[in-house]
Amino acid sequence: MPVITVANPKGGAGKSTATLVLATSLAEQGASVVILDCDPNRAIKGWRAGSSRNPVLVDGDVTESSITAKLDEYRKKFQFVFVDLEGTASRLMSRALARAQLVVIPIQASPTDAELAARAINLIQEEEQAFEKIIPYQILFTRTSPAIATKLERQITSQLKASEVPMFRNHLNERSAYKAMFFYQLDLNELDSRDVNGLPAARDNAFRLAEELVNLVIGAKEAA
């Protein structure tokens, strides 16, 4: 089953949020999902779903010596395996990329994020040469306005398109519901609309992203 690595060397890019939103959305649709929390901050390690009908397993005890064996084990048991990574050059990063069917690189619409995303892409390309395999990747814009793109966002998107950098069509919008997932330790469908604003829109955004992710994984598999 596919290993999806979520990586960016910049903190605050929305990496852990993207991982959790995508993983729980797939689980809500009936998929079996596990997250390996390999980020030093362990933002997802303590997260637990409440009464999810199909809960996401979170493994926060992963090291560079154990990750390969764990990935091989989880791929046999789960339909989707997510790896939340810091995104800097390391043996842990290298071993995760060696097993990845897709790398998601979350960025905010800022020059700094775009620059560090380029570093992540360079790491992927180095691993491609080392392992003599293609490692598909996609840029995912996070914390964007659902209403209208900013001028800076349009400029960065235009530059990435000109460089033929693959990007998600859908963005992970700025939604209070995504922050509430961490605060209440619940997934989007467990949250109560009386406590959190904009839940229907957040759920729809998550569903569309998860749907696009599945299509990307299928496309990468067919291309391979």
Automatic annotation (TrEMBL):
Known SUPFAM superfamilies for this protein?
P-loop containing nucleoside triphosphate hydrolases (SSF52540)
Give a single Pfam family match: VirC1
Q: Which InterPro entries match?
A: DNA_Partitioning_ATPase, P-loop_NTPase, VirC1
| CDD domains per record | ParAB_family (cd02042)
UniProt xrefs under PANTHER family: COBQ_COBB_MIND_PARA NUCLEOTIDE BINDING DOMAIN-CONTAINING PROTEIN, P-LOOP CONTAINING NUCLEOSIDE TRIPHOSPHATE HYDROLASE
> In its UniProt entry, what is this protein called?
AAA family ATPase
